[in-house]
Amino acid sequence: MATTTTTSTAPELVSNKEAAGVAAAPSRASESSDDSHAKVSYKSPGVIRVEALTSVMTTVDRWFVFFSVFLVAYAYGLDGTLRYTYQNYATAEFEDHSLLSSVNVLRAVIAAAAQPTAGKIADVFGRVELVCISVVFYIVGTIVQTVATDIQTFAGGAVIYQVGYTMVILLVEVIIADITSTRARLLFSYIPALPFIINTWVSGDIATAVLAGTTWRWGIGMWCIIYTACALPLIITLSIIGRRARKAGKLDGYRSLYSQLGLQGLVVDLFWRLDIIGIILMIAVFALILVPLTIAGGFEASWSSPQVVAPLVIGVVCIPVFVIWEMKAKHPLVPFALMHDRAVWAPMGIALLLNFAWYMQGDYLYTMLIVAFDFSITAATRVSSLYSFVSVITGFILGFIVFRVRRLKVFIVAGTALFMVAFGLLIHYRGDPNPSGQAGVIGAEVLLGIAGGMFPYPAQASLQVGLKHENLAVMTGLYLATYNIGSALGNAVSGAIWTQVLPGALSYELSLVTSNATLAVTTFGDPFTAVAMFPVGTPERGAIIAAYQGTQKLLCIAGICLCIPLIGFAAALRNPRLSDEQNLSGEGGDEKDRAPAAAAAAAGGVSA
């Protein structure tokens, strides 16, 4: 593996109030016509600090950073895989298993709002500070989930945990982008994902052991200790490099926002810089529209009830308000000035549709594997993690290939096409407990994983390589936010289909084999207890499987339809030649790329 380096030049440091890119936090009433230029030209405190760090960073330092990133990623990755399993049992214990999608929608919406916000925090305060903040949210949310006694408290804990989880996911990607060249970006971007190669196989055994020896509560709660311990090496490594940069005089002219503005000025500046109003409006739009879709169904549909109609109406009304606000905001959550180039909106479209489509088959995949395919807990956990396992291996190998060929687009287009083929297989193998059915769903998940290794991370790298360093964290956050909006949409639509279709299907199928009128309601609320009562081969289990098969078929058909525009966005990408620099802003990979690069860079720092 070639050692990746970045240009080791001292960052631009001046001692006045513009040193940190805040231009003395001008008041909204006194903005000049040059503000749009100023927002691009000045560097944020976090960017100045990380450039100072990279200027003194040695090869050994880089490998320590990479190892620390791997360690913290291993912790949150294994926790995430296990928590995906445990929350099925948590919602079933609360007798609200169908509300699993509601919990996932809330998590995705909060993640979408937290990603660009975390990017701005990283730019304003620094990378180390963001790690510390993420640890606090991660621990608090985990504790709340562990002690929850109802679905509402569990969902609240999930939201708090998601903020910390989202922050650290963004941070590790930004740190890697900070210290790698464009041609090596894809390869090293897979470091946080490498733990999935291990976790896919150990997670099933861990989940089985935990659920056999204790409950899901301890399975979630123990990560308060484990995650904190695994985050410490990254905090310590970055802190040591930061001290070295300060001793070398690289930060002599650096002044924090607090020292420049004071406490009151800092609070006011952060209010506008983090776009608090935009965050609230974004959460309102997606939460108020999507969550009702997941709770309106069931055996007693409630589409006309006030608790469903009122949030939907308010959410729809908030859409134009959000758009108008973002167009007028000084530091918008969504920087529309950077969204005109297809080098930006095409990757965003890919991020949106990838998760939208994936959650059509993935939201209730674990439940399907247990109920319809008759896998054990260990096997179901492993199969549900196959996508991550295969996509990481594929993507890591692809990283070496891209390092040599210096192009991304051809792999992205091929990956999206293969994604569509995998959904075709999932429609065919949608729930059958015999060996051929089990092998079919495993093969489909493997193919989905191969496709997933060819375009999500490459699309992110395609976006990043054309960004100025000043815009890197915020735009990476926006990309990941779009990714999570796709998750929210996928969870909402899959939840709506599940709650609207499955109750009726269960009632119909079970009425053909039993006179037990309450069995359908019981199975819908807690399918794991129901399947334990009726093994494969009994008429009741056959009826349950038939109901689940029909519902999963509709979900996968919706997913394959979303693959069509996904391929279109991939085809719209630019195809720059990657270089050994940290970014390509102001330079294209070849002659036909240079004009779009220059024009986009002038508009806000995005190149072809």
From TrEMBL:
Protein name: Major facilitator superfamily domain-containing protein
Transmembrane regions: 63-82, 130-148, 154-176, 188-212, 218-241, 276-296, 308-325, 345-366, 386-403, 410-429, 441-459, 554-573
GO cellular component: endosome; plasma membrane; vacuolar membrane
Subcellular location per the Swiss-Prot or TrEMBL entry: Endomembrane system
PANTHER family: GLUTATHIONE EXCHANGER 1-RELATED, MAJOR FACILITATOR SUPERFAMILY
Family to which this protein belongs: Belongs to the major facilitator superfamily.
Membrane topology: Multi-pass membrane protein
GO function term, MF aspect, one: siderophore-iron transmembrane transporter activity
Lineage summary: Eukaryota, Fungi, Dikarya, Ascomycota, Pezizomycotina
A Pfam entry, by short name: MFS_1
Tree of life domain: Eukaryota
Record InterPro entries: MFS (IPR011701), MFS_trans_sf (IPR036259)
Stretches with biased composition (Low complexity): 19-29, 596-608
